[in-house]
Write a structure and sequence with these properties.
The chain is an alpha+beta fold and about 140 residues long. About 20% of the residues lie in helices and about 30% in strands. Strand 4 (about 90-100) and strand 5 (about 105-110) form a beta hairpin.
């Protein structure tokens, strides 16, 4: 079994959205495990990157085994937490994944610009919450 000795700061991932046009988002996300952060150019890249991060940390542990046609990547050790917060051009979210059950994520998302927080029960619900914030907060971005 993989080592899962992570502090609560590793549950929180800062998601910076830099553009959101025609439903396509681009940005970066940061987690203490990553060090420098990771860029994404689509929703799929964001979701795959987040899932890879959670798998790499094995935290929170997945309730179900990941199925894939390809072999799974090797896991690496984490790095110390970052000391400063990053910001997106359009919006910044703090995503806290507490559980990974039923082949999805459960947790909370905070829209940092507005100070609003909502719980989510699935990745789809997380995406819809972020979409509603981006549509409300930046009408020119839709």
């Amino acid at each position: 079994m993989k080592d899962t000795k992570w502090g609560n700061e590793y549950r929180l991932t800062t998601v910076c959205i830099d553009s959101y046009k025609n439903g396509e988002l681009t940005g970066r996300f940061y987690n203490p495990h990553l060090g420098e952060g990771k860029s994404f150019r689509s929703l799929i890249q964001f979701l795959k990157g987040m899932e890879d991060l959670l798998d790499d940390m094995n935290f929170p542990q997945s309730f179900t085994a990941k199925r894939s046609f390809a072999s799974l990547p090797e896991h690496r050790q984490g790095s110390p937490p970052e000391s400063h917060l990053r910001h997106g051009t359009l919006a910044t979210f703090a995503v806290r994944v507490i559980f990974r059950q039923n082949a999805s994520w459960q947790g909370s998302v905070t829209w940092l610009g507005e100070g609003k927080e909502q719980s989510f029960r699935s990745v789809l619900e997380l995406v819809l919450l972020m979409d509603s914030a981006l549509s409300e907060g930046a009408p020119e971005a839709v």
